[in-house]
Each structure stands twice: as C-alpha cells, then as structure tokens.
C-alpha cells in the first residue's frame, strides 16, 4: 500500500544518507539511482547522488543531478554552490561564476558562494575582484581557514606575496591538521 511504499522510500533515503556519511559513495550513488528510477523528482535522492558523484569524481553526473535539483528547488543556494563547484572542477569558470552569483542572490552572506566566486574570478583572470570576493568570504566566516587560502591565492597571483603568505599562515593556524593549508604556506615560503 501507499504507506508502506513511502516508508520503504524513507528507509532507502536514510540508508543512502548513511552510505554517503561513511564514504561508501559508489553504493550510495547506486541506491539513489534506484530511488530515482521509481521517483525521478526526489530532491533528497538527487542531492545525495550529487554528493556521492562529487566524491567519485563523476562531475557530469554531479552537474546533471544538480540541474534537476535546481529545477525543483531554484532557491536552494547550496545547490547553486555545489553545481558551481562541479563546473569549476571541470574548468567551466564562467559557468561556476554564474552559479556563484545565483547562490549569492539567494544567500548574500554565504562564505561558500563567495569562495566559489573568488576561485572562478581568479581563474578567469580577474584577480582584484577575486581578492575582494575572498575578503567578503573571510568577513562572513572569519574562522573558516579556506577563505584565507583562496584570498592568499588571489593575492599571490596579483603579486602581493607578503599578503598571500599572511593569509596562508592564518589558514594553517586555523586548520592545523589540514595538509592543503600547510602546503600553501610552505609553497609561499619557497617563492
């Protein structure tokens, strides 16, 4: 009956969520695919499969699922950021910038959207604008180390090596266990 079907779907989504959380992404993607064959517009199944696809490096699947999710929920700022990150990874920096700006229309103080905007701008050669976007990310979330890394990358590309080093050091202090943050600091010291 209908109640049993909904209960089964709910259990399957809970299982998919658990699989994503325990880094069993291939199983999660497969289970979400089965759910989407039965219920193609299940927003949570699309979101979970997109997350699993990102972790598996399946960026075309990620972008496709987030396209569908954004059709269902156009005001979901996080989905715009996630799709933009998929586009950025695929070197579609103009598309990533458009998605970052769509996210910012919905969540103007989103540090994640500002970071995406900064990375896209930097890769498009708009270094000063990239630094400004990263600075707004740092203002929005001062304890988030990745904002400093992104601003440091923009500063370094713009020739401000001292400012870049200060940002990389701040990121390394905030994320002392993050090898990427420490790596950026070490890289800046070599230059």
Secondary-structure topology with pairs:
Blueprint: H1 2-21, H2 25-38, H3 43-56, H4 59-72, H5 77-89, H6 93-106, H7 111-123, H8 127-140, H9 145-157, H10 161-174, H11 179-190
Write up this protein:
This protein is 81% helix and 0% strand. With 191 residues, it is mainly alpha-helical. Helix 4 (59-72) packs antiparallel against helix 5. The longest helix has 20 residues, at 2-21. The radius of gyration is 19 Å and the shape is elongated. The mean pLDDT is 91.
Work out the strand percent. under 5%
Uncertain stretches: none
Q: Which class of secondary structure composition applies to the elements?
A: mainly alpha
Task: Sum up the overall morphology in one term.
Answer: elongated
Please report the number of helical segments.
Answer: 11
Distance, first to last CA: 67 Å
* Average pLDDT reading: 91
Got a strand count? Answer: 0
Our Rg estimate from Cα atoms comes to 19 Å
Major β-sheet profile: none
Helix content: over 70%
Order of helices and strands: HHHHHHHHHHH
Would you kindly provide a brief summary of this structure?
The chain is mainly alpha-helical and 191 residues long. Helices cover 81% and strands 0% of the residues. The mean pLDDT is 91.
């Amino acid at each position: 009956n209908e109640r049993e079907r909904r209960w089964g779907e709910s259990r399957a989504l809970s299982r998919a969520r658990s699989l994503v959380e325990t880094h069993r992404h291939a199983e999660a993607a497969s289970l979400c695919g089965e759910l989407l064959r039965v219920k193609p517009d299940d927003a949570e199944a699309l979101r979970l499969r997109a997350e699993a696809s990102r972790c598996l490096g399946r960026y075309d699947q990620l972008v496709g699922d987030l396209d569908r999710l954004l059709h269902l929920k156009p005001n979901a700022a996080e989905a715009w950021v996630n799709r933009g990150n998929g586009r950025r990874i695929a070197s579609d920096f103009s598309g990533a910038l458009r998605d970052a700006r769509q996210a910012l229309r919905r969540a103007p103080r989103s540090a994640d959207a500002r970071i995406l905007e900064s990375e896209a701008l930097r890769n498009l050669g708009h270094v000063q604008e990239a630094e400004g976007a990263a600075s707004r990310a740092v203002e929005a979330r001062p304890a988030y180390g990745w904002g400093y890394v992104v601003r440091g990358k923009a500063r370094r590309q713009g020739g401000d090596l001292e400012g870049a080093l200060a940002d990389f050091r701040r990121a390394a202090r905030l994320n002392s266990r993050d090898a990427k943050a420490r790596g950026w600091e070490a890289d800046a010291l070599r230059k």
